Amino acid sequence: MNAFKIGMGYDVHQLKEGYDFWLGGIKLEHEKGAVGHSDADVLIHVICDALLGAANLRDIGYHFSDKDPQFKGIDSKILLKEVMEKIREAGFEVGNIDSTICLQVPKVNPHIPTMKSCLAEVMNIPESSISIKATTTEWLGFVGREEGISAYCVALIYHV
Ligand SMILES: Nc1ccn([C@@H]2O[C@H](COP(=O)(O)O)[C@@H](O)[C@H]2O)c(=O)n1
Ligand SMILES: C[C@@]1(CO)OP(=O)(O)OP(=O)(O)OC[C@H]1O
To answer: Hey, where's the site called Transition state stabilizer on this chain (predicted)?
Structure first.
């Protein structure tokens, strides 16, 4: 039964002062930002990994190495667009994605509609196929100490 495939993604980035905070394709206003080789958009990275995993196409770091200067500071929306091309070249379309952002502060709920509309445009899928949720970790661990952000995503793709 090859019609449907699922995949999951998990990623972590450090949060530090003096960095921009890109999340879900948009820039948030906060005293800290995410550190990475790219723009460190953790939500986009887990979506990429979930999609690549579902299609059995390795992971984001395999396709876009964090040692390659070509990807230094790159807008993760460009990476997501390329991942969508790989998924579609392999004969798949996206059913839906469901993601969770783990972040102590700031609250991201007010920004979720904008993230969804941005990602829907980049991925060329309906907003109704994109779920974004958020949770704190109740002040526990690296997320709770505001040292980092993590995210999870599952994706369902189907062969067209
Ligand atoms: N960075 C975050 C974290 C959470 N939320 C929203 O707040 C609700 C309560 O969070 P708990 O960790 O206490 O469960 C959660 O359901 C999210 O809707 C948020 O917007 N931004
Ligand atoms: C996106 C890439 C590529 O620039 O860099 P980072 O922003 O460091 O992100 P990460 O999720 O750690 O790894 C994937 C990398 O290949």
So the answer is: 37, 136
Among residues 63, 43, 60, 53, the alpha carbon closest in space to that of 7 is found at 53
Are the C-beta atoms of 42 and 11 separated by less than 8 Å?
yes
Spell out the domain ranges in the chain. 4-159
- Protein residue closest via CA to atom 21 of ligand 1: 107
Ligand 2 geometric centre to CA of 79 (Å): 10
Q: What DSSP assignment string belongs to 40-88?
A: --HHHHHHHHHHHHHTT---HHHHS-TT-GGGTT--HHHHHHHHHHHHH
Q: Which pLDDT score is estimated for 2?
A: 63
% of residues, the chain, pLDDT over 70: 99
Closest Cα to atom 14, ligand 1: which residue? 135
Residue 112 CA: which ligand 1 atom is closest?
A: 20
Q: Considering the entire predicted model, what is its pTM?
A: 0.97
For domain 4-159, give the CATH number: 3.30.1330.50
Q: What is the ipTM of this complex?
A: 0.95
pLDDT tens profile 11-36:
999 999 999 999 999 999 999 999 99
